[in-house]
Write a structure and sequence with these properties.
The chain is an all-alpha fold. It has one domain. Helices cover about 70% and strands about 0% of the residues. It is built from two helices and no strands. Helix 1 packs antiparallel against helix 2. It is rod-shaped.
Amino acid sequence: MAIFCYNTDMDIGRLSYYSRRVHRVAMLFVIVLGIIQMVTGSIMKYPQMFTGIDQGSVRVLHFDVATYFSIAFFIQMVTGLIMYIAPKLIKAFRRPSPPPTI
């Protein structure tokens, strides 16, 4: 089944559920890529401490990882926004329950 298929029974609760799942995966990518960014950034900032490492390769790795980091961070931001808004929308569009009968 394709990820971007048209589903007629998609509701806000399901959207929030899938957003939560995608958010977790994006978070793992952000953490791993962020650690790579941190290490390569430190190597570029303090080249005198890392004399045996090629600075050009580190710079290329840092810039290449930055693209994927930005994409993963954007996905995490969008899914986080959906998770923030979804409960408010569910509460706003909830049908009022009928009054209790005695």
